[in-house]
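Thread: Modeling a multi-component assembly for a lab meeting

Hi all, long-time lurker, first post. My supervisor asked me to bring a structural picture of a complex we are working on to next week's group meeting, and I have zero experience with this. I have the sequence lines for every component (837 residues in total). Could someone generate the structure of the whole assembly? Inputs are pasted exactly as I received them:
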Amino acid sequence: MDVLFLLVPLSVLLALAVLGLLAWAVWSGQFDDMESEGQRIFQDETMNSPQKRPADMTS
Amino acid sequence: MQAAVILAELPEPGPGAIPENGPGRLAVFDATEEWATFSRPAESTPGKAPVDTTDLWESQVVVRGMHCAACSLTLEQALLAIPGVSAARVSAASQRASIVWAAALTRPSEWMAAPLDLGYRLLPAADAFAPQHGRKAAQLALWRWLVAGFCMMQVMMYATPAYVAGPGDITPDIQSLLRWASWVLSLPVVFFSCAPFFGNALRDLRQRRVSMDLPVALGIVIIFAVSSAATFEPQGRWGKEVYFDSLTMFVFFLLTGRWLEQRLRARTAGALDSLMQRLPDSVERQQTHGGFERVTVRRLVAGDVVRVLPGEAFPADGTIVLGDTFVDEALLTGESRPVARPLGASVLAGSYNLSAAVQVHIEKIGESTRYAQIVALMARAAVDKPQLAVQADRVAKPFLGLVLLAAALAATYWWSTDPARGLMAAVAVLVVTCPCALSLATPTAMLTSAGLLARHGVLVRRLQALEDLVSIDTLIFDKTGTLTEARMGLRGVSTRRGVTAAQALQLACALAQHSLHPLSRALVQAAGPGFTPGTLQVFDVQEFAGQGLEGRLTDLPVPGVLGLVRLGSAQFCRLDGAHHSLRVYLADALGWLAGFDLDEVIRPDAHEAVSRLYKVGVEVQMLSGDSYAAARRVADQLGIKVVQGDCTPQNKLKHLQALQQQGRKVLMVGDGLNDGPVLARAHVSVALGQAVPLAQAQSDLVMPGGQLLMLPNMLAHARQTLRVVRQNLGWAAGYNLVCVPLALMGWLPAWLAGLGMALSSLLVIANAARLSRLKEKS
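Re: Modeling a multi-component assembly
Sure thing. I ran the full set together rather than chain by chain. Output:
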């Protein structure tokens, strides 16, 4: 049972790390627009900038 | 202009960093051209007695830092206390305020700075960086919510062993280890996620007033303090129980409720916002050498040519000078289908360009556009407080005081027997009460309805009208311009032998084009494109007001017609025959030449609208300034039974008063131009037609598109709205009545209290959201 004294603090650290990841996601705008990203695939490819096209399908 | 640009480029202050936006920065709004972007001249003040009526302005601002409906009264009082501010209306539901102030006595910087001390921040409603601020605030709210949710899950893990283990299963050191872990993960919840609760509660304490955040903050502090004490000093006098799981859970529920509430509110009451924020920020303007540059819309002046791409909104009223397209004018005219706008057609600011890029020559910008008028009208309605809402607000404040008292009583009562139970009961009372639901019940429902009606071409000027519409049992139509269209159709032409109908019409049009009389215009319109004024020359045209026109033909363009030609009533043309308001005569030196029978064009949807109104039990009547015969004919076609003709405005008013004395609730529908006083006296009034300058319409509701079918729909919808309002009020009151006693008895755990509180607010708003769809009743 002594291992709990290591594992419980570790789990706290892990939780804080996940919180850090969430912070990055929120502040880099990942959740800003939940709707339009899903609809991007329906757009004409010509409307998108070249970078946003799916990577070369042939290779 | 420059000042605003500078302001927009200043670094965005962190959300909640209110002091940074000190009075110094607000000074940029003191230039007349700056405040003109979010203000317009006001004529009269409904509130405090005006000090100086010569230079009054009405400003629309967005309020930040207002979380509860009870705040709106405080902010109103603070604004009214400033010398020079003569009226202030604050709406908690739309988070907007409308302020009337005298330029001679105060400046925007003054009344914008004063609320800062109270913790509120005012932003000009039309300001470009308002959406930017909204995005940051939304991100922060989401982040607080995520922290609370994630920590709650983890704390729950640490709490589980204590629930499932039998006595003695967990050694004391493991137990304290788990409590320590819970405590660490509760820290971010209490000190970060709950920061808004504490901030608002502190602000309220400093202002010596109570709001819904105060009890919640108190509850959080009490639970956290007791649990922390138990963690560090299990043998202490605060008991050995920890409640970190309850704490994190109810905070999470509260934040979930608040977050969803904000989103729902933005979606429903935000129909107004979507209307107000329709203009693009920037537009491509043609430069002198022909190229295009992107400039902010505020720099446009009349005479500029701009290029508008498909999907963009038109920035100003203007004419298309290059290209053809389809536009969406749904919010402006109620026409839901795309409308063709070819080369040379005019387009409205705020309508969307749908199909092709066009170049537009700007004619009107800013305040003078139809769009700006509609926005001003809607903004006014958004801060209008219906009676029901005022009453609810009045109840909410003392209610909070009672809650604090009840919590204290519960704590002291249980303290002697079971301190832990006493604390939890007090916390549950603090958390479970929801005056918010009470305050939100009416405005959310009514604003949602107003937003919906706006999308269908009905602009609500007074929210109270929605409540009044329900009791309507009699509807009075004006005829001309209301049931009939403003234009008239030509029904028949009779001519003297030797003159063809086409020739007679040509001749009449040559005269009629010099006049603005409705009958003259109808003749010109009836002749249509076949009429070319160049072929016929009429000289010395004179108009005799109300009688007719007279002109001279020099040669003989029409065989058999010579000399002086007259167009007008039988009497004016020196002919025998009864006066008929819809017959026009043409005569020359030889006497009668031709007669034109005109006919009023009944609006295509009038018949169905009238029959549907009868079906829902509304008695329809018609009052017309026209002759009885003309009025009767239209009424018969539509199936209206009660008709009065030859009505002067005084007659109409008398008729209205007689009906009202019988106890009838009257809805008056007119064109808003010549029946203003009658409209003002009716219980509810509707003005329709494009002719009315929106700002001057005297009515409660305006239908710019004139879809009569919306009248029965509107009545049905008003009924539904009031039903939802009643449900909301009933639910809010019932919820508090049931839950507060339960919490007082200590039967309600804190997490359940948090859940109940969040749900009660959400239910109210979700119920209101049902109103955002129109039920088509057949």
